[in-house]
Amino acid sequence: MPDTPTDLRSAIFSKTTTGQQEIASRSLGLSPLARRLLVLIDGRRTGHDLEPFVAGHELAQYLNELLDRDCVEMKAVLPAKASPATGSAAEASMLAPASTDWLAVLPPAESRSAKEMEMARNFMTNTVNNIFGHHNRISLIESIYNCKSSSELREVYHAWAQALESNSIGHKRLPELREKLFAVL
User: What domain of life is recorded for the organism (predicted)?
Assistant: First the structure.
């Protein structure tokens, strides 16, 4: 698509008439994650806001699927960069990647043993299951499970932290849980 921005994370999407019909009829045969995104697109969320719902998968793949099938359209594109001097703090925080400072304190991913990586994966899975219940946040659980290295697990960390932040119990316990996870991540 020629008018698609390089970074779909900065675009705000809204459903088209075709997209609204697809939600009711399921006639286009969308992939499960594309359908999930279609349901979540509300004309206010950016690609960045939608990214945790496809954690461990390529957001652009599913957004392009929806764009190609005319289920969604870009409503607006936020500026590529915002600084506190030029934009509001809310805009700057929306555009900034999820807190990479937390991971910066960790030793190199390659220094972690296979046992530590497995412990980190199990810890992340168990916290999601305990806070949200089994059979919830399935794509996040799958993303955690599919990680083969500490580096891959660290990429899923942001979605894990964001999911916990979205829950009142998870939000309260996140500092404690993060500390325990970082002992093995």
Answer: Bacteria
